[in-house]
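Milestone M4 deliverable, item 7.
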Amino acid sequence: MLSGLSATQENALRPMIIGVREIGEAQGLSAFGQVDETTLIRQVASSPQLAATIESQVGWFVIHIAQIDSTDQRAEALLNRLDEISAR
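Output delivered:
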């Protein structure tokens, strides 16, 4: 359960994060810096690479959230099962 999530984080998401950071920094954007919304919209509109990178990140975010939710549900089911067994 956790190994699949961990593998996704290490093998897929971490390299993607590094790539996104590099693309953003090449555009003068920092992962932790302030950016004017109008400026960002202009940059995204003028850079197909930046636009595609952001779109890909949204997709990875959705997948990652689904994996975390699934892991949470499985953990809760396991805890409930352990409670049932210990109550006997």
